[in-house]
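In this section we walk through a basic example: taking a raw amino acid sequence and producing a predicted 3D structure, encoded as discrete structure tokens. The instruction is simple. Fold the sequence below.
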Amino acid sequence: MKEQAKVVTANRLIDGAVVYMTGTITDKALHDMGWSEDIKASVVATSQEQESIMLDQANTAVTNRLIVEPYLIPVSGKTPTALRATTLRERIRAQGPTIRLKDNRKPRPNPVTSEKNL
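The resulting token sequence is shown next.
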């Protein structure tokens, strides 16, 4: 049975922004690890070994006070540019606030109304 593709998400400690782990993964190591606000830039785990490696690196980032509360989320999409979270909660986190913010910035498009295949 094929493993569900997953990415690591967390919140950046300095500003609380939702971030996703980036880099290149093998079954032995994660290279060029970083964090992006764009889910489409995420490194994708396709095995339990890769998930463990990614979570270990995320926990190191917690220790270094870069992020808080890292966890794996399931994603779908055949290419990196087509990546999307599979749960409603994570689609909302990926898209940003669904209401107008106090400083009058417009929210990003609501993933519930902009997704055709819910």
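Looking at the output, two observations stand out. The first helix runs from residue 48 to 63. The chain has a mean pLDDT of 83. In the next section we compare this with other chains.
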